[in-house]
Amino acid sequence: MSLIHALKRVRPYYYGLLALLIVLDLVWLDAVRDVPLWVIGLVVAFGFAAEFLPARSQRRPRAERRENPGEPPAAEVEPPVSGRWRALNSPADKVPSHGTRVYGQSHAIDLVREAEPGEPARPGFGWWPVVRRNQDFPAFGEPVLAVADGTVVRVRDGRRDHLSRTSWPALLYFFAEAMVRGCGTPAAVVGNHVVLDLGDGTYALYAHLRRRSAAVREGDRVSAGQRLAGTGNSGNSTEPHLHFQLMDCPDPLEARGIPFHWRGTGVPANGEVFTVPGPRGGGGGGSAVKGASEAGRRGA
Predict the structure, then answer these.
(1) What phi and psi values does residue 221 have, to the nearest 5 degrees?
(2) Which of 150, 116, 154 is closest to 225 using CA atoms?
(3) CA-based Rg of the chain, rounded to a whole angstrom?
(4) Which residues lie below 8 Å from residue 106, measured CB to CB, with a gap of 6+?
(5) Where do you find CATH 2.70.70.10 in the chain?
(6) Helix (H/G/I), strand (E/B), else coil: 202
(7) How many CB atoms lie within 10 A of CB 229?
(8) Closest listed residue to residue 206, CA positions, set 221, 220, 195
(9) pLDDT tens series, the chain, 300 aa
């Protein structure tokens, strides 16, 4: 196991230890005073290593959406949604797209549904109301689709869909909530999710899905364009949206991200609104995942 993978494995325990030191500092100050300075320094140093070593970022000019020479080739797959959407945290602008390579999300992308003409607009960010119902967002319950023919290897859909975090007061709570989630398993962060095995060592992760919306079970064979579940607001999420990524193994703790390219859509940039025609059929020749070889991924 590499140093980076080892840091990913023990990263949650760091947050637990840090929280314990804070509690001791508040409740039992003398206990902290007896801790040698080198121990405190080691905890802080480990925190920096766990957070920043796996997360070296390379920004990409919007006008130059090209792959880095050191990256594996992009896998060409179908879009995971249909309709009108906005891209956030896009790898077209920065890698790692979410500021970290933890959980294999270096090339992940977030998608929020934008209203069609004549529909109520997607709520914006502000001071009031503090929270909103998930039904207020166009993305809630929208179908997420298989990007290629594959096999379902993981389904988790028992976590609740919490209220939105799209106000300044709720955002403060969200940051504290995220620290707590970071102390748990990856499922606490990605929420309800589905993982597909697309073949050739390529896996697709769909995260933050709606509770009890899964339309597939582990072991099922699916076709490109087939409905897998509905978009939700579970896990580390501020509003109903889809977090999508490709990775080189089914376990996010061990995975490395894989670049992708959506047929007919490309990779939308941050803030870009795009439309995918739909509905689509369930077997439209999406069995081949092009452009990503096992040797290329492991050698990156």
Answers:
(1) -95, 135
(2) 150
(3) 20
(4) 91, 95, 96, 97, 98, 100, 256, 257
(5) 68-298
(6) strand
(7) 24
(8) 195
(9) 444 455 555 555 555 555 555 555 555 555 555 666 666 666 666 655 554 444 444 555 444 444 455 567 899 999 999 999 999 999 999 999 999 888 999 999 999 999 988 888 899 888 889 889 999 999 999 999 999 999 999 999 999 999 988 888 877 776 777 766 666 678 888 999 999 999 999 999 999 999 999 999 999 999 999 999 999 999 989 999 999 999 999 998 889 999 999 999 999 999 999 999 875 444 444 455 665 544 334 333
DSSP string, 147-180: SSSEEEEEEE--S--PPP--BHHHHHHHHHHHHH
Confirm or reject CATH 3.10.490.10 for domain 68-298, answering yes or no: no
